[in-house]
Amino acid sequence: MVDKNTLARKRNPGIQKSLQKRGIYLLPNLFTAASLFSGFYAIVQAMNGKFEHAAVAIFLAMVMDGLDGRVARLTNTQSPFGAEFDSLSDMVSFGVAPALILYVWALQPMGKLGWIAAFIYCACAALRLARFNTKLDSSDKRYFQGLPSPAAASLMAGLVYVCFDNGIAGDTVYAAWFKMKWVAWAITVFAGLSMISNLRFYSGKDINLRESVPFIVIFVFVMVMALISYSPAEVLFVGALFYSLSGYLSALMRRKNLEE
């Protein structure tokens, strides 16, 4: 028996021709592949004990991940394949990689508590990505529901980066009640649970790069670049921490306005 698709192709040769021409858009998927490579590279470096390289690789993956979507929209090369590839890449770069980096850097000596915290983060990243994919067409484009996985990964990588930059190891003990591994544990769980929360985080997708902006915007951008160049570890970590708390702060402000 001949199936319906075969009959349709015989009746309309144009369908067969279009199927043969269908392929994968190269440019946006190159950025996605670069993000995936950065995430994998971060895992390898963490296993070798080079945590600074691992943290920088996570930030590089974040940049590549931000570019692939922009490039796809600007060049009109969006595709279902690209969306699926991007989601799988995010799971590696912003789900598995940060969890393993924090586990090797500070959580491993904690035994079950350590790997459970790393698993919580990894599982929450998967749930966050699945929810984002299923609500992509119905959600408000101006806000993310839950902390985005790249932001959660940058918070964890920023912690490792700033500690390494200041000579603080994952097993550092300042006092009986203050151990760096507990700080790492708290941030890992916080980042994971924030991803699956219903809090709103500003997405920036309503910003139109083709529109003119006031002079002060360019000045602020230059100042931010200068600060990052002067002290990248501290600025990146503080920025990631502030963004991670912004959803909680905005929720408190909305609640306060409703009560008034």
Structure summary:
The chain has 260 residues and is mainly alpha-helical. The chain has helices spanning 4-11, 13-21, 26-47, 51-74, 80-107, 112-134, 149-165, 180-195, 215-230, 232-259; strands at residues 143-145, 173-175, 178-179, 200-202.
- Largest sheet, order of strands side by side? 1-4
CATH topology: Four Helix Bundle (Hemerythrin (Met), subunit A)
Structure classification: mainly alpha
How do the helices and strands follow one another from N- to C-terminus? HHHHHHEHEEHEHH
Tally of separate domains = 1
Annotation field: number of helices: 10
What is the CATH superfamily? CDP-alcohol phosphotransferase transmembrane (TM) domain
Give start-end ranges of low-pLDDT stretches. Answer: 4-9, 13-21
Distance between the ends: 70 Å
The overall pLDDT average reads 85
Provide the CATH top-level class. Answer: Mainly Alpha
Measured by DSSP, the beta-strand proportion falls in under 5%
The rounded Rg comes to 21 Å
Helix content: over 70%
Estimate the global geometry from the Cα principal axes: globular
Sheet with the most strands, sense and barrel status: 2 strands, antiparallel
Number of strands: 4
By CATH, the architecture is named Up-down Bundle
